[in-house]
């Protein structure tokens, strides 16, 4: 059985291959039951979350991710997310691989945002704003830079020192990153804004979004979290990774649905419809687009299969 740690998982998930693997999975016959979402009390701290996310391609592969999210881990200099992915044969049930779930989650989340931006961001977008300085930030920068000539990447965080460090780490990877203190000014000039925070209050005002901007929201994963306000929802054409997930779990969708700023009918498409061409993405260079991702188990399965086949040279668990 293959066991991949964080570094090995990262090496086994090259960005271009991962983006294409996720696109192919959205087009395919993957089965994704509703994920299990449990709150766990941590005395004296914010509640933690336990996620169990199964998915399978009939007769080929099956898998489940066990993921924990502890928001206050930053105070301990620990990642907020820990997890493990268990990949099995979809024909025999044999366990094939144990894969680092935190790294898999970070990379597949960023790759999914980059895939959505392929359909929703302007082709000539060259300025990216990253809001947040956690694990996802570097991954989002790298993924959005795949096939896109980004000239400027701005990094904003509540902690300026963390933003400076994240920008420095990005420059070490060859990305044109700089830390910024003024989120409004950075948002007003950005072509793509990608938010990866655990905020419960909107960070991005819709009034700041320029014509042609693309807003990518990946941080909020509960109905009580929010990264953009109702004005952003009203001004933008809204897209989601999956309607079922976003409309039940994402505060950036759930709350506007309750307030009337958004209706189910005005969600233009989910990612599978963009990928298979049944619904259009951006139609005009002046459109403001918004993509809300809460994560789908098929994205994890796509990444796990890619990592397993990348390392072992296997082509299909049915062989």
Annotate the secondary structure layout:
Blueprint: E1 2-4, H1 6-11, H2 15-27, E2 36-40, E3 48-57, E4 61-69, E5 81-89, E6 95-100, H3 101-120, E7 127-131, H4 135-145, E8 152-156, H5 160-172, E9 177-179, H6 183-189, E10 192-195, E11 214-217, H7 230-235, E12 237-240, H8 243-249, H9 251-259, E13 267-270, H10 271-276, E14 289-292, H11 297-312
Parallel strand pairs: 1-6, 7-8, 7-10, 8-9, 10-11, 11-14, 12-13, 12-14
Antiparallel strand pairs: 2-3, 3-4, 4-5, 5-6
Helix pairs in contact: 2-3, 2-11, 3-4, 3-11, 4-5, 8-9
General description of the model:
With 319 residues, this protein is an alpha/beta fold. It has 2 domains: 2-104 and 298-312, ornithine cyclodeaminase, domain 1 (2-Layer Sandwich), CATH 3.30.1780; 119-295, NAD(P)-binding Rossmann-like Domain (Rossmann fold). It contains 11 helices and 14 strands. The chain has helices spanning 6-11, 15-27, 101-120, 135-145, 160-172, 183-189, 230-235, 243-249, 251-259, 271-276, 297-312; strands spanning 2-4, 36-40, 48-57, 61-69, 81-89, 95-100, 127-131, 152-156, 177-179, 192-195, 214-217, 237-240, 267-270, 289-292. The strands form 2 sheets. Strands 9-8-7-10-11-14-12-13 form an 8-stranded parallel β-sheet, sandwiched between helices. Helix 3 crosses helix 4. The longest helix is centred in the middle third of the chain and has 20 residues, at 101-120. The chain is globular, with a radius of gyration of 19 Å.
């Amino acid at each position: 059985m293959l066991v991949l740690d964080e570094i090995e998982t990262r090496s086994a998930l090259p960005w271009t291959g991962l983006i294409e693997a996720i696109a192919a999975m959205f087009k395919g016959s993957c089965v994704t039951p509703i994920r299990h979402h449990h709150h766990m009390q941590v005395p004296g701290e914010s509640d933690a979350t336990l996620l169990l996310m199964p998915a399978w391609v009939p007769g080929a592969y099956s898998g489940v991710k066990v993921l924990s999210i502890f928001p206050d881990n930053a105070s301990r200099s620990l990642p907020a997310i820990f997890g493990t992915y268990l990949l099995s044969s979809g024909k025999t049930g044999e366990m094939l691989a144990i894969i680092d779930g935190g790294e898999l989650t970070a990379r597949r989340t960023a790759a999914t945002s980059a895939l959505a931006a392929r359909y929703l961001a302007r082709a000539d977008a060259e300025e990216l704003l990253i809001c947040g300085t956690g694990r996802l930030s570097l991954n989002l920068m790298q993924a959005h830079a795949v096939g896109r000539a980004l000239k400027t990447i701005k990094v904003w965080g509540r902690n300026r020192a963390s933003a400076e460090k994240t920008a420095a780490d990005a420059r070490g990877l060859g990305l044109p990153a700089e830390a910024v203190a003024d989120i409004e000014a950075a948002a007003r000039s950005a072509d793509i804004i990608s938010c990866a925070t655990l905020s419960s209050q909107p960070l991005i005002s819709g009034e700041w979004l320029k014509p042609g901007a693309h807003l990518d929201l990946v941080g909020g994963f509960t109905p009580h979290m929010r990264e953009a306000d109702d004005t952003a929802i009203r001004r933008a054409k809204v897209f989601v990774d999956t309607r079922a997930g976003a409309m039940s779990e994402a505060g950036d969708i759930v709350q506007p649905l309750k307030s009337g700023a958004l209706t189910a009918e005005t969600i233009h498409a989910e990612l599978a419809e963009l990928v298979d061409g049944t619904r259009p993405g951006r139609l005009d260079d002046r459109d403001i687009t918004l993509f809300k991702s809460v994560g789908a188990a098929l994205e994890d399965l796509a990444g796990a299969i890619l990592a397993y086949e990348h390392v072992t040279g296997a082509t299909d668990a049915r062989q």
